[in-house]
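Reopening closed ticket. The problem is back. First fold of the pair:
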Amino acid sequence: MILVIEDNEDVRDFVVQKLAPHFQVSSAADGDTGLRLAAETIPDLIVCDVMLPGLTGLEVVTQLRADWRTSHIPVVMLTARNAPEQQLEGVQSGADLYLTKPFNPTFLLESIRTLLANRAHLREHFRRELSVDTATVAPQRVDQKFLAELTAIVEANLTRTDLSVEDVARSLGISRVQLYRKVKALLGTGVTDFIQGIRLTKARQILLDDSLTIAEVAYQTGFSSPSYFSTAFKAKYQISPSEFKALHVTPQS
């Protein structure tokens, strides 16, 4: 989904018309409405004019970057101002690309595709970090802090077989839809799959403790039954829990 924030109706309709054949598109005519829609719908990318009634485009970008619900969203700024210092101001506010009017619609479309492809690469980066260590992703950025908080909530409720997406969203103070779109944008996966991944990664760590049975590991990580745990574990790691334990654990004498 692409969100277009532009107060000039002709320009807004033109951009929407050019993007609509390729993406789902929504629009807003002012900065305040655009910011609200961004937080509610979590679009994949935002095209935003600099000069807007209410919040300016630069203020919109600054607030987007400060809110972890929207901090990951790429932003393309559109403006009639082409002075180098003004373009620098746009980039410093957190915009990913700064285009001056009039702009080539084909260039805009290809720029959007490139930014979305770069976002896909970043998703893989986050996914690799989480697969290596589920404890905490260092909160050096707003997105990383969000993932650390999300992971901590899941781990704190790991033994709960009934832990739901709604429970996690409630703990974060957001809606189920907002949580889904944020996790999908960052990791390319659903929240349920994310929770399952945390359970399985933790189970793999606990299996190294020879004093615990496979059933005990299953219940400690929130699986409803040992058989379901074994099926999920083998689907993820291509090896059963008992085989994993035999390979990596030396029996105590």
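Second fold of the pair, where the issue appears:
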Amino acid sequence: MLRSAMGFSEELIQQLNRALEIKFDGVQRKMAEAAGWDPTGLGRVLKGKRTTWLDTMGRLADAAGLKIVLSGEGPKPDLTRDVCWVDATIVPAGEKAGRPEAEDYFAVPLVGEAGAGPGVVSEDAVKSWILVYKNQRAIKGHTDMLAVEIERRSTSMVPTLHPRDIVLVDRNDIEITKPGGIYLVREPGQTGGGKVKRVQLTKRKDETLVVYYSDNQEENPPEVYSLQADFNDRLSDAIIGRVVWAWSDMTRK
């Protein structure tokens, strides 16, 4: 059973925590200094101990139907859903530990690479839903996520990723923070689907080259595109999102 989406103030707090992890290495002092704000006050907001102004802004935004949209991105539906347990089955190892808290988890839609488009994911494309623990360090602060199953014959990322492995993609994170990060990407002109590749941006005079490359480079040579000529100078046309987590079938290794 799925609950309705979070309110504006809750989403703002989650996005601030996400920015804290990604841009400030999880150090609140750095974020407070960048904002010119008292670290103690920032800490209260990040922990959800809201101030009067945040509560007021949240109620006004909810009443107006406003939603947070990250810079450079148009509005799009948040794919993740909150969770509510209904007769949840607990494995024997956890029977004496008590029922897990539903608010600690997201339900994330699982699709194949061919169905991993940038916008609305159709109901037909969703194979299943995966529960994701929100407080895992790599997951904390990420909200608009998509689980993607590597295609059966896709060996381009071996040995890092194998066919039928599952990766978790943050669709709000398209920044190339370091060369060689793993992303879900599109080819020029592609509106749906995607493939998992490492990405590097290279400057050449007035042009930015977008390089997709695989871990299995013997069978999959790098693909080089122009950000300006091939992707209309919009990184969001090339990158669907960054891979932040992966599940792998260890019985095959």
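Update: turned out to be a display glitch only; the data is intact. Residues 2-64 form one domain. The helical segments are 8-23, 28-35, 39-46, 52-64, 227-231. Please close again.
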